[in-house]
Amino acid sequence: MRGKGDGLGFERVSHAFGPKVVVDDVTIDVPAGALTCLLGPSGCGKTTLLRLAAGLEPLRRGRILIGGAVVADGETRFSIPPERRNVGLMFQDYALFPHLTLRENVAFGLAGRGDGRQAWVDGAITRIGLGGLAGKYPHTLSGGQQQRAALLRALAPQPGVLLLDEPFSGLDVTRRAQIREETLALLRDTGVATLM
Prior knowledge:
- By secondary structure, this protein is of the alpha/beta class.
- The protein has 2 domains: about 10-85, P-loop containing nucleotide triphosphate hydrolases (Rossmann fold, 3-Layer(aba) Sandwich), CATH 3.40.50.300; about 90-195, 3-Layer(aba) Sandwich (Rossmann fold), CATH 3.40.50.
- The protein contains 5 helices and 9 strands; from the N terminus they run βββαββββαααβαβ.
- The strands form 2 sheets. It has a 5-stranded antiparallel β-sheet, with helices on one face.
- Helix 4 runs parallel beside helix 5 (about 175-190).
- The protein is globular.
């Protein structure tokens, strides 16, 4: 699976919650296949940028482009709904469905997409070393295993853009470096534009 389109772009994006400006005139280009990291202290707008790109917050000012097409324009109030943006989103807490197995969680967004994607799910689960756990439920998995399952779920529909909200913060320090390297290798293989 390779990334599609021209990636993700923010053009002069600003956003406020009431009088508090949390994103101020941000311009970022994340080309297809690139991994871009947002760095800054808590409350500086990193998660807000991800939510704006995903369409979970209404854009107030600026433009957001995915695959070269405008998906949100603050001036005209144009906004493509989140489900039509071709974006994968992985929250900080992974948000796995507790009543679904690892395999069912990864395949969740693939309903009606054919057997080829299900084969991808099984292959991807095996490739990241979780093949023997495919039938297990999230509460029986370690933090690192849950993180990898959530990442695969976000990648399964082949998004043009992947948004990761602090994907390593909940992991044990001793495992964080290994999980980070495994995640980066998987992202390089997919070629998807990634913002974290």
